[in-house]
Specification:
Length: 455
């Protein structure tokens, strides 16, 4: 039986979104994303060639939202997921863990690649400028929507149907280009400011790294030992001998509630800072009391993330819990509790040193985006143990020498402010609040009618 032909009016009714929580300019229209995109097409590796270029999630630099390095794969070993055709101008969006923002535009150099079915390939029917769509998908509003639609525990993802229901504020094409131009102009200025901040922080970090390395090679207490006629430099001991280790529990997303006991996740340990305001999640106080007892953390514990974004190396930073709070430990976070024969601050400084981090990352596994280090390996790492008296002297000296570390935290806060400004710019852009709209231009409603009438 032939499929009933849908009229233009029915297509328009299906495409247009009327229940929008914010206002847009009068010559804009809000549409479902799926109505503006062409159907994805299949492409398999050409068996006449020996190799092909493959874009999977590992090929995306999610720090800068771009394609970093496609894999070169033998055609005979092609994974079954390698079957999405891409063309220049397509916008790739990974439907797996959308909050990681594995998003990129296909440039000319990657137009012959084949992408994983883990991506939704966004190809405009003509009503969307590619970069306008790219920035829209990068916006916090879009990411929050996709994240709220995720299903699954191990690799939470969003379905094609839900992706296509995203509300798209659709301006006239000329306005879309003006919005893109304004976004890129403002972002360029912010990125220059960020470069200056990173240069300053790099200087602080180099100084800090040199001081910490000197401390754990006996350099900062050399005069102190001579004065006390101490010849021993300490002895190398595994971390397991001087601290107790505890891994976190694999809490499921369907266990999270609006209030209760907060679960510390990897996102809360960002660049060595405990930030409980970053996407907080909670577990009910009515769960098994043994579970609460086993996975609670206390003041003096040092936390270490074992999994994170490999490209950014934003894990492996030590975070000291400085006050007793009701917190539970999530999986892939290691809690390290110093024993009596080691000073907490001495161990904390060691775990913050590049000396330790070089050893830590020497055992890193995983692809470009996903890095992992084994908790058992961390237990085996050696630390130079000197007397408690000398440990305290090292801590005293380091506290004094690293007073400028607070400035690094200030720089980090400035960087965070820049990211917030970028989010604000994107939010304003897709509400028509950048001051670029020309109300005399023909309504985007006519543009929508035009592309739907051609189907």
């Amino acid at each position: 039986m032939a499929k009933k032909k849908i009229t233009l009016e029915e297509k328009m009714e299906e495409a247009i979104v009327t229940d929008v929580p914010y206002e847009v300019p009068g010559n804009w229209v809000c549409s479902k994303l799926g109505s503006l995109l062409k159907n994805m097409t299949t492409k398999k590796p050409d068996d006449r060639n020996e190799f092909f270029k493959y874009i999977d999630i590992d090929a995306i630099d999610n720090k800068n939202q771009r394609i970093a390095e496609p894999k070169v794969v033998n055609v005979k070993e092609a994974p079954s997921r390698a079957s999405r055709e891409v063309m220049e101008g397509d916008v790739l969006f990974s439907t797996v863990r959308p909050y990681l923002k594995n998003i990129a535009i296909v440039t000319n150099e990657y137009k012959d690649c084949i992408a994983s079915t883990g991506f939704y390939i966004c190809r405009s029917k003509g009503a969307l400028i590619n970069k306008y769509l790219y920035y829209l998908l990068c916006s916090e509003g879009s990411i929050n929507y996709f994240t709220s639609m995720m299903k699954g525990d191990n690799s939470p993802s969003i379905r094609k149907e839900e992706f296509e229901r995203l509300n798209v504020p659709l301006p006239p094409l000329k306005e879309q280009q003006r919005i893109v131009d304004r976004i890129e102009s403002l972002f360029e200025k912010l990125d220059k400011a960020k470069e200056l901040i990173e240069e300053a922080r790099e200087g602080f970090e180099k100084r800090k790294s040199a001081i910490l390395e000197k401390a754990f090679r006996g350099g900062v207490t050399e005069k102190w030992r001579k004065k006390r006629k101490i010849n021993e430099m300490g002895k190398l001991t595994s971390l397991k001998e001087v601290a107790d280790f505890k891994g976190g529990f694999a809490f499921k997303s369907n266990q999270f509630v609006d209030e209760g006991i907060q679960v510390i996740r990897m996102g809360n340990l960002y660049n060595g800072v405990l930030d409980l305001t970053r996407n907080p999640v909670y577990i009910s106080r009515n769960i098994d009391s043994n579970l609460i007892s086993k996975y609670s953390i206390k003041s003096g514990d040092i936390l270490l993330t074992l999994t994170g974004t490999k490209y950014k190396r934003d894990y492996g930073y030590a975070v000291l819990i400085e006050e007793d709070k009701e917190l539970l430990l999530n999986q892939r976070i290691l809690s390290i509790s110093p024993k009596r024969d080691i000073c907490t601050s001495y161990l904390y400084y060691y775990l913050k040193s590049e000396f330790f981090r070089d050893i830590f990352f020497s055992q890193e596994t995983g692809g470009v985006n996903q890095g992992n280090v084994s908790g058992k390996f961390v237990e085996s790492v050696k630390i130079n143990i000197v007397s408690l008296e000398e440990q305290k002297e090292i801590v005293r000296i380091l506290d004094k020498l690293l007073e400028d570390e607070s400035k690094i935290e200030q720089l980090t806060q400035l960087e965070d402010q820049i990211e917030l400004i970028k989010k604000s710019i994107l939010a304003k852009a897709f509400r028509g609040e950048l001051g670029t709209n020309d109300s005399n231009e023909e309504s985007a409603l006519e543009l929508l009618k035009e592309i739907l009438s051609k189907e």
